[in-house]
């Protein structure tokens, strides 16, 4: 899993998304369905902030989700993403153990 996670992070855009999601209230506007820390940030907010098309944003987020670095929550027709801190901690531990 570590190699897949490192590959997922081998993109400036995905690294930036992960940094934004670390402190979502600082980087994204309020949203209708709840707290961005608890539920995540709507993909449309991520797409808008990154200045990319919805399909490109979805592709980047899907890569991060497959690597288990983010978790998705679906509410109605909207999808919200938040960091998977447990997986990130495990990845950091694995890196420390192997370097």
From TrEMBL:
- Write down the Gene3D superfamilies for this protein, in alphabetical order: Winged helix-like DNA-binding domain superfamily/Winged helix DNA-binding domain (1.10.10.10)
Which molecular function term from Gene Ontology is one that the record holds?
Answer: DNA-binding transcription factor activity
Q: Which UniProt keywords apply?
A: DNA-binding, Transcription, Transcription regulation
Q: Domain of life of the organism in this record?
A: Bacteria
* SUPFAM superfamilies attached to this UniProt entry: Winged helix' DNA-binding domain
Q: Which Pfam families match?
A: HTH_5
| UniProt KW Transcription keyword | yes
Q: Which residues form the HTH arsR-type domain?
A: 1-99
Q: Extract the CDD domains matched here.
A: HTH_ARSR (cd00090)
Organismal lineage: Bacteria, Pseudomonadati, Pseudomonadota, Gammaproteobacteria, Salinisphaerales
InterPro entries named in the record:
ArsR-like_HTH, HTH_ArsR_DNA-bd_dom, HTH_MetalResp_TranReg, WH-like_DNA-bd_sf, WH_DNA-bd_sf
Q: What is this protein's name?
A: Transcriptional regulatory protein
């Amino acid at each position: 899993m570590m190699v897949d996670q490192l590959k997922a992070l081998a993109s400036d855009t995905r690294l930036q998304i992960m940094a934004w999601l670390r402190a979502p209230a600082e980087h994204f506007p309020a949203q209708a369905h709840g707290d961005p820390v608890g539920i995540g940030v709507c993909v449309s907010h991520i797409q808008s902030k990154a200045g990319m098309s919805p399909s490109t944003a979805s592709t980047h987020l899907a890569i991060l989700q497959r690597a288990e670095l983010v978790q998705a929550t679906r509410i109605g027709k909207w999808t919200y993403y938040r960091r998977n801190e447990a997986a990130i901690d495990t990845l950091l531990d694995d890196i420390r153990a192997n370097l």
